[in-house]
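FIELD: query
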Amino acid sequence: MTADDVREAASALAGRALGLPELARARTVAAYVSVGSEPGTLALLDALRERGVRVLLPALLPDNDLDWGAYTGEGSLARVQHGGKMTLFEPSGERLGPDAVTGADVVLLPGLAVDGRGMRLGRGGGSYDRVLARLERAGARPALVVLLYDSEVVAQVRRRHTTARCTRW
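FIELD: result
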């Protein structure tokens, strides 16, 4: 996709996501800042904040688990290089701890693909598998929404690990 295609898709994604009933009634949303050619999330994050929604963003820990911090606008993001891994945009403010995600009404998940059963394929680092396991242990039942392009919805995702199924994709 060209840079213009990615920008147009981000705008369309924000509009479509904001129309989801799960996001319409959410008070707290755990999200992420997209990287590379992932569907763009910044417009969505800003629109959620404008609605008065508390937006939590992840910060990658050395063991690939995720800590969380509040998103208060694009100026609250820090560009963080993670060793030989990727560069991510993370919240620059106070860390709220890995369990902060359990208070979210909706968790937006990145993914490479999802199937009709709602099974998600991630990048393989296990960060979001840990988030899903943490939610399950806490008895938290947020809506799980994967942000994808149409071409990333596939016939079947085969998993080695069990995870929660996604509510929307």
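FIELD: remark
Confidence is low (pLDDT under 50) at residues 160-169.
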